Amino acid sequence: MKLKFTKPGKKAARTRADFAKLPRHVAIIMDGNGRWAKKHKLNVAMGHRKGTETLREVIRHTDDLGIEALSIYAFSTENWKRSPEEVGALMQLILDFFASEIDELDAKNVRILILGDKLGLPEKQRDVLVEAETRTCRNTGLKLNICLNYGGRAEIVRAAQELALLVQAGQMRVEDITEEAVACHLYTKGQPDVDLMIRTSGEMRLSNFLLYQCAYAEFLFPKVLWPDFTVADYDDALEAYGGRERRFGKRL
User: How far apart are CA 47 and CA 73, in angstroms?
Assistant: First the structure.
């Protein structure tokens, strides 16, 4: 079932030429699906499903703009604490999303990377994710990072453990553990750090999302709920980013 809730007076999507500056890496916490469902007197599963429609449009527009990487927070390590019904709906959405989108994503040269502990996911979902990564591994366009069973602290711990094993094996020295070395053991190895982090629904926290990669990110917290977040809203966020002065600790 597809839901259609479009805003009146919908603006045309902007092109790359409309922006003075665009981020290389955008990260999005897609917040507000449950509140959207409650507002429309629907069960929470329908809120997540409507949120998937929003995600589809945002991915397409990100690709059209030529942005290098897009990271989306789809399911955190803490989300297992939600009701079995909601967790089940989210697991089903993983299957539905890839069944409906993988052909287009692959055709558009999008590379899919799953960030998080895939082994902690159900076997059917894990197989679908591995297949999507394998199918698109040679694609050279937009890097679509889908964070599933993901936690930022767990990612940093994982990197530290890998580096410790290398030191233990005599393959590197303690003094060789630099910021660059740590970055090479993160899920986002080889990608730029996050330039712009967007969290919808007005909540203002990171919720354990890409903690290392967001060290110098610009943050935006639009109040709109994720299912109502339009391409025009996204363009507004990108335009706001373009107006920021990024100092990285320096004085301009």
Answer: 16
